[in-house]
Amino acid sequence: MDMEIEEIRGTFRPELIPKETGGDIEDYEEALHVLMKFVGSMSSALEQVSGRGANAIVYQAGKRMGHDAAKMMEKTDNLEQAMKEMGEVLGVEFYFEMWKPSDQEGYTIEKGNETVVKLLFMDCVVRQTLRRTGLPQKGPLCYLLYGYMVGAVEEVMSIKGKLDIDHVGPNACLKTLTIKWGGK
Amino acid sequence: MVEIEIDEDACVGCGSCVDDCPNDVYQMNEEKWKTEVVKVEDCMACLSCHEICPAQAMEHRDIHVAKRLYIDRKVNDVLDKII
Ligand code: SF4
Ligand code: SF4
Prior knowledge:
- Chain A has 184 residues and is of the alpha+beta class.
- Helix content of chain A is 44%, strand content 18%.
- Chain A has one domain: Muramoyl-pentapeptide Carboxypeptidase, domain 2 (2-Layer Sandwich).
- In chain A, strands 1, 2, 3, 4 and 5 form a 5-stranded antiparallel β-sheet that branches.
- Chain B has 3 helices and 4 strands, in the order βαββαβα.
- Chain B has helices at residues 16-20, 48-52, 73-82; strands spanning 3-6, 26-29, 34-37, 58-61.
- Chain B is globular.
- Chains A and B meet through α1, α4 and β4 of A and α2 of B.
- One iron/sulfur cluster binds at residues 6, 11-17, 35, 52-55, 57-58 of chain B.
């Protein structure tokens, strides 16, 4: 296949924060696909080399990202408020909402010193990446979002959190977030 | 509110959607031996049933359709020309 590469030529001046990206939407798309393939193959290689250890590595990376991303957020001990803030942290690429079965009254369930809430992730770049590279869901890459969510919620609420994957689908994934009260 | 329509002519009655749906939205109609929607209010639009149905017999309406950034439009363009 012949591919025409358009070279960008121009003047370049040093500047603190470059204003121009030097590309258009097509370039972003191309870059996204290259990154998806790269991240996908890195994830399966990691799994091949370290087995189940891959999940722990990716989880830690995600958790660190989550803590960093949520540092600027307002602290709260209200779970619903925290979920609203989390929505802002995770942004449109990890668009989620609280979910409950029709026969359950509220979104949260109290279990001793734990509060449980189900989260429905509708948009997810990890899922996009897995589909792009033909990898199954629930693998190491899913632990990135798992860690990210736990890290961010721990940061916003100053508690210990845990996220379990209930179900994965091509259009949405259901997870259970468990908050353990009583500090870190 | 989600609406699910089953194309009964297409449904082959394999029951895969009944087994796969995590929220028991479907059940088999034992007389017709076709799937039927019994708990649409619990559908979370994960679309696992779409992926598993061999007959593409269901349609979900009024749902959040996730972005499909994984689609490579260049590959699709090439396929369009071939097919
Ligand atoms: S979309 Fe998911 S929840 Fe809804 S009927 Fe299909 S499998 Fe069940
Ligand atoms: S998976 Fe498809 S073909 Fe099988 S019972 Fe369900 S709707 Fe019918």
